[in-house]
Specification:
about 120 residues; four-stranded mixed beta sheet; two-stranded antiparallel ribbon; 6 strands; about 30% strand; flat
């Protein structure tokens, strides 16, 4: 019994930010746009003391019988600006929650309220 092995040579595509490997060019290009290590996606909020999470019930829609559907989620929240924030990835994919009366906005590229973490702060 002779074992027959198939050998193929293929082009691979590597994310220039995180080195993740793809076999399809378009998949790699799509990933690079949203990659969390892409410098274009850095926001000062990620390193800010004011960023935290807040639990909220999000309206999802109405059922056929007229009842409403909600989901309880933890969302990023800026305690200084008193607003919910969504990440660049959410902004690119356009998949943030509509919070009705609550403010929900993309993370700013620059923020005058930015306060970096201080390991000596209590």
């Amino acid at each position: 019994n002779k074992i027959i092995m198939k050998i193929e040579t293929k082009t691979i595509y590597r994310c220039e930010h995180c080195n993740k490997i793809y076999l399809r060019k378009h998949a790699c290009e799509k990933h690079e746009i949203m990659c969390s290590k892409n410098p274009k996606n850095y926001r000062p909020c990620f390193d800010c003391q004011h960023l935290g999470k807040r639990n909220i019930d999000v309206f999802l829609g109405n059922h056929f019988d007229g009842s409403e559907s909600y989901k309880n989620v933890d969302l990023l929240f800026c305690k200084e600006k008193n607003t919910f924030l969504y990440t660049p990835k959410n902004e690119i994919k356009e998949n943030w929650y509509d919070l009705g009366d609550e403010t929900n906005e993309p993370m700013p590229k620059k923020c005058d309220k930015f306060k970096p973490y201080d390991i000596f702060d209590d």
